[in-house]
Amino acid sequence: MSATDLPKTALRELLLALADDEFILGFANSEWTGIAPILEEDIAFSSLSQDEIGHAHVFYELLANLEESDVEALTYGRTPKDYRNTQLVERPRGNWVYTVSRQFLYDTADYVRLEGLQQSSYKPLTQAITVILREEKQHLIHTSAWLQRLAADSPEAQQQQQAAFEMLWPDALAFFQPPDGENKLIAAGVLQTSFAALQQHWLDQIAEPLQRLGLSFPFVRQGAVWATAITPTLGGRRGEHSPSFYELYETITSLYRSGLETQW
């Protein structure tokens, strides 16, 4: 597909959602550097955070090339309402159990989203995703191992897991809130399926491991779909964020807003 045939406004929303999710989560998780439960995990989780920020840069570059704009200004120079990350990634880190539970939900959802974009008609995106998916697969393995480790730990850890998932579900269900212009992206072949369909596929993927571990899975089958009474925390894809985001935003963009030169 040529650049002139692309629904550029809708594609911009999609690329920002991809980039901002990775960017904000990467910085949020980097707060564990030096304080993770064990030294090996300190190193591993720092590496995962760096991966997320690196993936964000790839998506920001795609958008900067598409718009012929400056990647630094795109990354750091927007106002808070211009960020399209889901609120799932911007919450305070909480304890280790909360972080692992959030990372599991995010990694599984992100993997489904990226797989759903592998056949996109926008070739620069599919080429980037081919590389990113290899690293995201390792993230999935790592997070799933920690989820199982905690579920097999003490009753206290299991109780903390249950509490974490109950807290996380409203945010997690908002992950697949579609970007503005989803119908145009589907018509152009940039998206092969709707985000609602991707969400159902995600729930198919996580139902068995969560139920096997005795963890929260508040969904029931109604015909071909999973149904729930939980109300998603929508808004992030439209630039609506929680107080914790604004604190993170001030930290992330402070150097850029100071007028000093920034560089990835």
Brief summary:
By secondary structure, this protein is mainly α. The protein has helices at 8-29, 39-67, 71-76, 96-116, 123-151, 155-173, 182-187, 195-212, 243-257, and strands at residues 220-222, 225-227. Strands 1-2 form a two-stranded antiparallel ribbon.
Care to describe what's here?
The protein is mostly helical and 264 residues long. It has a single domain, classed as Up-down Bundle (Ferritin), CATH 1.20.1260. It has nine helices and two strands. The protein has helices at 8-29, 39-67, 71-76, 96-116, 123-151, 155-173, 182-187, 195-212, 243-257; strands at residues 220-222, 225-227. A two-stranded antiparallel ribbon has the order 1-2. A hairpin with a 2-residue loop joins β1 (220-222) and β2 (225-227). α2 packs antiparallel against α5, α4 runs antiparallel to α5 and α4 packs across α8 (195-212). The longest helix has 29 residues, at 39-67. It is globular and about 55 Å long. It starts with 7 loop residues before the first helix and ends in a 7-residue tail after the last helix. The mean pLDDT is 93.
Element layout with pairings:
Layout (H helix, E strand, L loop, with lengths): L7 H22 L9 H29 L3 H6 L19 H21 L6 H29 L3 H19 L8 H6 L7 H18 L7 E3 L2 E3 L15 H15 L7
Antiparallel strand pairs: 1-2
